[in-house]
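Subject: two folds for Thursday's group meeting

Dear M.,

Sorry for the delay on this. The cluster queue was jammed most of the week, so I only got both jobs back this morning. I'm pasting them in the order they finished. Each block is the input sequence followed by the predicted structure tokens. Could you check whether the formatting survives your parser before we put anything on slides? The first protein is the one we discussed after the seminar.
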Amino acid sequence: MSTPPSPAPPRVAVVGAGTMGHGIAYVAAIAGCRVSLCDSAADALADAQHRIESLAAAGLQRGKITETDRAAVHQRIRYTKELDDAVMDADVVVEAVVERLNTKQLLFAAIERQAPKEALLATNTSSLSVGQIAAAVREPARLIGLHFFNPVHLMRLVEIVRHGRTPTDTVDRAIAFARRLGKEPIVVQDSPGFASSRLGVVLGLEAMRMLEQGVASAEDIDKAMELGYNHPMGPLKLTDLVGLDVRLAIAEYLHQQLRMPHYAPPQILKDKVARGELGKKTGKGFYTWSD
């Protein structure tokens, strides 16, 4: 008996070409998907294309991908400013825009009007209520959380976040998509911070308080977790990669929702964000970065 052919890779639209969006587009293309990467800002698209090409070049240099893979990534990803153009024939639409509930709700209302009725709709939110985001669409059962981690091409975990109106088949589609991209999915309920952010933010904020109190330097605090607990990256360096503004927004949201003192953002974080020290993307955060 012959083996049935593998299903064709899904057509993927990624809306938002920032830190997470370009990474999701890259791993989808590596996995064989045709990808439309959408952003309303032309400079964001240009920056995303540069970053994706840099990821492919680095992967080739390290032997992670072949020259054929690199060429395929270039061919499989197209860049567009128009939402309808990006999502009109997508099997999966992944939203990766700013962590603002109203922004995501308005975007998904537009996506639902323009994407195929059978398309899976997914938000990459790291802390907001997936159920509240889904409330903006006519068919909330088709929307789910797909929380990727930064840097997307290296981090294996994807949180599948189901809300109160998520059917099993939607969860199954999300799991299959995550595995297609080479990720290891976990399924969590729609609760503030899910599993990863709720735990990770506490560690990051405590590291900031320790730095604020002069317990140790940023480098030594990070080294304590890297060498003492086998973490691949310390919490302060990770915050720089995620973005201090993103971490602040998540902390404020969790503090508001959970009313627990350990989610209150420390002054050092608020001061750095106010000064525009947002981490790697601005060249300075808890560390100084250069290209």
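Second protein, same layout:
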Amino acid sequence: MTALALALHILGAVVWVGGMFAAYMCLRPAAGPLEPPARLKLWSAFFAKFLPWVWLAILFLLASGYWMVFATFGGFAKLPLYVNLMQAIGWVMIALFLWLFHGPWLKLKRAVAAADWPAAGANLNRIRQIIAVNLPLGLLVVIIGASGRYWG
């Protein structure tokens, strides 16, 4: 069961962090030359497809992570530092995602539907700022998860 939990945990991280990386480092520069209506429609369509996967990734991460806390590590009292760091950063990432989803994303979706391009652009910019914080946090968690058991 630990192998399955770890596999689900890794898949959740790859989907979420990899999706943010692809969006920020690849799609963002590629969409830059598009006219605002086309660019905003593209981003709205991208997030409509990507964000449900993030919800699933978060579910996998939480369920598998807390299963491993108890089944593999014997509870919270016995957790190594690297697991506590992943957990703390992970909750910050989830909080940022919840803000992105329930704030700028819903506003972006409504603005694109209403062809309110200035409002859509402002909300897309807010999403960009949130991802600019969440992506480095996600990459840091990946590094911690991959290397933590080898610390000291």
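Two things I noticed about the second structure. The chain has a mean pLDDT of 97. The CA atoms of residues 20 and 135 lie 6 Å apart.

Cheers,
T.
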